Amino acid sequence: MPASVLLANEGMVATAKAANLAVLMYGLENSDPGHVQRQALLGVQAVICDEVSWHTDPCKPMAGHVPT
Fold it and tell me: Is 27 or 18 the better-scoring residue by pLDDT?
């Protein structure tokens, strides 16, 4: 699903996981490490993004980026 949908409806991850579904996100929002970190904390299992060099560990805090 698009990351913008998740960011507007964060409870969707828990609902999907309760149904034993994998949660993968795509979208321009995934170019922001803070958004990717927030998605990881919500339980998203994978993101599709253009730049992967700074996505090595999305659960690790990143300098200058605060999840919203």
Answer: 18
CA triplet 32, 13, 1: central angle to 5 degrees? 60
Compute the mean pLDDT over every residue in the chain, rounded to the nearest whole number.
Answer: 78
Decide if 13 contacts 42 (C-beta within 8 A): yes
Residue 61 sits at the vertex; the CA angle it makes with 65 and 5, to the nearest 5 degrees, is 60
Using an 8 Å Cβ cutoff, are 38 and 55 in contact? Answer: no
Question: Dihedral sign, CA of 56, 49, 62, 46?
Answer: negative
Dist CA 57 CA 35 (whole Å): 13
Model confidence, pTM: 0.67
Written as six digits, the tokens of 63 are 């300098």
